[in-house]
Each structure stands twice: as C-alpha cells, then as structure tokens.
Amino acid sequence: PIVDVENVVRHMRMPSNKGRSIIAVAVEAVNEVRSPLILATLAVMAAILPMAFVRGLMGPYMRPIPIGASSAMLFSMFVAFVITPWAAARILRGAAHGAAGSAGVADAHGGGRGGEPEDSLTHLYRRIMDRIIHRPPARYLFLIAIVLLLGGSVALIPLGKVRLKMLPFDNKSEFQVIVDMPEGTSLERTAAVAAELADAVRSLPETSDVQIYAGTASPYNFNGMVRHYYLRRGANVADVQVNLIPKHERKRQSHEIAKSVRPELQRIAERYGAKIKVAEVPPGPPVLQTLVAEIYGPDDDTRNALAVKVAEIFRVTPGVVDVDTYIEDCQPKLVFEIDREKAMLHGVDTGRLSQELRTAITGAKAGILHDESEREDVEIIVRPEEAERSRAAALATMPVRTAGGAMVPLGELVRIRETVSDRNIYHKNLMPVSYVTADVAGDEESPAYAVLKMRHALAELKPNAGGDTGLDIYLAEQPFYGDRYALKWDGEMHITYEVFRDLGLAFAAVLILIYVLVVGWFESFVTPLIIMAAIPFSLVGILPAHWGLGVFFSATSMIGFIAGAGIVVRNSIILVDFIELRMKEGMPLAEAVVDAGAVRFRPMMLTAAAVIVGAGVILFDPIFQGLALSLMAGEVASLLLSRMAVPVFYYMFAGRSRTAQ
Length: 661
Hints:
Blueprint: H1 2-12, H2 22-32, H3 34-48, H4 59-62, H5 64-91, H6 95-107, H7 120-134, H8 136-154, E1 174-180, H9 187-202, E2 207-214, H10 222-226, E3 237-244, H11 254-271, E4 275-280, E5 291-296, H12 300-316, E6 320-325, E7 332-338, H13 340-345, H14 350-362, E8 364-369, E9 378-382, H15 386-389, H16 392-396, E10 399-401, E11 407-409, H17 410-413, E12 414-420, E13 426-428, E14 431-440, H18 447-459, E15 472-474, E16 486-491, H19 492-522, H20 527-532, H21 539-549, H22 555-584, H23 589-599, H24 601-615, H25 625-660
Helix pairs in contact: 1-2, 1-5, 1-24, 2-5, 3-5, 3-19, 3-22, 7-8, 7-23, 8-21, 9-11, 19-22, 21-25, 22-23, 22-25, 23-25, 24-25
C-alpha cells in the first residue's frame, strides 16, 4: 500500500495529468507498480517461508513467524490492489486540484520525467549518480567503498566486537545459588555454609529477600524442571533462593547482579570445599547447563578419569565458571557378611540377624504418639544412639539373642569388610556417559568462544596413558558406537550450533528461491543477481549497530537479517522494474538508472520508516532486541546503499550485454 499511495500521489502531481479523472489516475498509478508489487510480495514470502523448516528446539518457536508473516503479505497485496486505489480515489479527490496547481511552482526547481517535483536532495542525488555513471574511475571508487564497508562490518565478528549467542540474557527478578557440599557432610554444616552464602547475597542493595533450603530442593521453578534441581535431596545439598527488588527500582539487570556476586560466593565456597552454581532463570534454551561436555567410552573408570581431566581444562579456561562433574566422591562402605556356619552353630536365623542389624542402623517403628501439640500423629522409632550405630566397633558389640536364649556379640556372627560404595552410572540413548558442566561469565559470555579456547587442549587429551589415540570430539551428533572415547558438546553450545546451522541453510534456501522467482519473472539470469546484490548491504548496518549498542548477535538477529532480505529484495525489484519501464518509454539507459533511484526513493524510504516504527516496539525487549536491530539498522543501510548500488550494477551489466549484442 505504501508504494501504491506514493505512486498515486506522484501521478496526481504531474502536470500531464491535470484535469484527468482521479479514478483514472489512481488506476493508472496502481497498474504501473502492479507487476513489481506481485513479485516483491512473492520475494518476501520466499525469504521467510524457509524458516518454517528449522528443526530442533527452536523449530516450534520459529514456525509461527513465516506462517503469520506470509499470510499478512498476501492480505496486504489484496489491500494494495483492491482497497488502496478505491480509498485513494475517494480520499484524495479533494487534494487532486491543489496538487496539480502546485506542480507548476515545483517545476521551477526542476523535475523528473513527466514533470514530477523534486527536492534539493534529489537534485544532489542526480548530480552524484551522473558522475558515477559516466565516469568509470568514480564508479569503481564507489564499488570499492561499498566492498570496504561490507568487509569492515563482517570483520567485527572475528575481531570479537560483535559476539554470537543463542539468546541474550533476560532481566528477571530472581536467581538461585545451588550448593553441593562434599558427600558425607552433615546437614547442620551444609545449612551453616548456605547461611553464610545467603549473608553475602543479602548485602546486595538489589536483594529483596533470601530463602535457604538445606537438605532439599527449593520450590519447583524453571531451573528445577529443566536442570532437574527439584530432584536434589540429601544432607550435603542446599539451595539459596534470591529474590530481587522490582525491575523499575534497580539500575542493574539480574545478570549483572548475579555476575557481580559470583566471585565472593566462590571464595566462601572454596573455604569449605563446596561447589556452587549461580543459576539464573534463563530465557532459553532449556538445557542442563550452558556448557555440557558428554564423555563416552567403554570403561567406567577411564571415562570418569577423562571427565576429571576435561573439568580441569574447564577450570583453567578464562570465562568458564561453576565447573562441576556428575561424578560422586568415593564413599566408604561397611559390608556385614554373615558367617552362616557360626550362625547355624549358635542357632541364629540369618534372616532375623539381617533384620536386627537393619533395626540397629535405621530403627524400627514401635508405635504412634498422640501429642496434642502436634497436628498429626508422631511415629515412635526405636534405635540405638548415633554414637553406637555410626561406628563398626560399636555395632560389633551389639548383643544378638540365640535360639537357646544366650546373648552373642554381633561380631562373632559376621565379618565386617570396608569397601567403597558404587557410583551412579548415567546413560544417554542406552550409552554410558559422564557429564562435565559449567557456565560462562566474563567478557565473552557465549559458549561458542569458550569452546574455541578449549579446542586445542581437548584435542591433546589421551584417554589412555601412552596411547596414540586421541579423544574424538562431536559437535552435534552423538557417537554411534561406544567403543571409543569421545566428547560430545551439549547444552547451549549444541543448541547454538543447531539453530545457526539451520538458519544458515534456511538463508541459502531463501537465496535460491528468490533467484528462481526473479529469473522466471524477468526471464534473465543476470537481473536476479543485480537485485540480490543488495542483500549483504544490510550487514553494513546490522553488525555495527550490534557493536555500538553492545548487543549479542543472537538467533533473533539472524531471523531479522533473513526477513530483512525480503524487504531489501523488494526495494531492488522496484528499482529494476522502474528502470526497465523507463527504457521501454524510450529513455536512455544512463538516464533510466538515475531516474529510478530519484523517483522510487520515496516509497523505499517510507517502507524503511514503517519497518523502523514497527520494529521499534520490541527494541528494548532483551530477547527480541536483536530482531529489532537487524530490521531497523539493516533496512536503513540497505536503503541508502541499494539506491545507488543497484542502478550502478544494472548499468554495468546491461551496458555490457548491449555491447556484446
């Protein structure tokens, strides 16, 4: 509709249309842009539809975007061809006479083909473009400048000025401190350490209140569901739930607050041998941890030893924090083996002997106490004092009644053997696996950069001492067999790779679809390349905008770049179609390419303004800020560059083809 209305107004201002029916002028103006609008609509749909086929975790979240946007594009085309000319003919009827009368005044300043009024900026554009078109040195200097701008913008990524991340950090009103004391720690000591950690967090000015959950998990929340924190039980575990004051009452975001308190919490944890994780409520993706290394291999001990080495590499890597493994410490275990021969000689039943030993350690229910001060009945558990049941020597002296009524020490009937308790063995897709987890904090808060820093150290790991075989490293796929030792990245790193890979494939499909579409429309293999050449120009605005505002180039930024490609192609189609229209009217090629940029700039600028206003609504949302920046900055950059570059490209390629003919 923007292109329609602008073209109707432009035709109304032409002196040649003075006195004509407004309906005839509107129909003629809409007819003039009908073909490029149909092609532009199909091009935008081709740019966004491939995103519906993104797989993995982000697929269900992205699918509504291309479906809804494509439907909106079809409906807007219907509006442009049916409602817009009807509304223009009625609403602009009164303005037609004034516009036609003012055209003569505008002609004093010059105008385009048909006498359309032009401002001073358009005259400046014509003078600059005339020089670029007719002077080859100026033309090549212009092209070199565009290449340098594009190269400098793309270089911001390898230089580390623009950082890639799956999703940026959100601003929440809470975070957790997950505490893991060494196995065997008493509940009282765990609670004391958690209280000291809570005091450190409570000193923050942004803290509203703090709750401590020792020996059990905190109430069910997002992290509890995704990271399985709700399953945590035991005397050596604790959660510190930190609630912050409302967002509008604090200057710092929740991520900055959690990041600032982490060093102090780490110092406290190191004094007590504890492992902590500062767990923020993530906007996504729902993963076990930001960095997750899955270690596969045939032997449990070797695989666990390899996981410990990987954890050490994590700890010495800058920016990697909260390192932990899913390997429990070795716990001493007492095994009471019944001497069946002695038990038979003393007339002691082995089943009863096992029951008495279990009663001595865990106790036995003797009855129920009805206490008026309690809301429910209290169970009465009978068992020895802790000092008598916690030592093997004390248990060995426990008397056991024989069949004859005599009392025999337990140590006479059993052999007490010290051993180590079994560790948990985790499996993924029926393959045994050891997990190493960590988070990322510091200057580079994306897991991709941490993985790049560790790749050389991990490549040098040898599963077996003196062996020649290194560690196989997988990025996206799990090893098919478990006969070799391998490391597979999971967590946010896996999701990041998967999403950007699928978006890259979607972008490649976009380019192919647009090329095929434009080839069929213009019946030329070169014209689509000219039209699509403007797509990379949006990066000249997108990447510097992300750098200037310190925003991650996230998955939503990539979506904005792909969706913006359709709008960029749309502008190029409008330019090329107008060039060919002017040439059919008899205008020379050099004049036609300049006239297209001068006449069609206003609808392109209005479209860019509409995109900026529409995307500005989500500019300050932490998650969709990248999408807004890509649409806004990309549209502005491509608007300014494509207005000059597309006519120059068309002039160069069309001039060569005519010379060849």
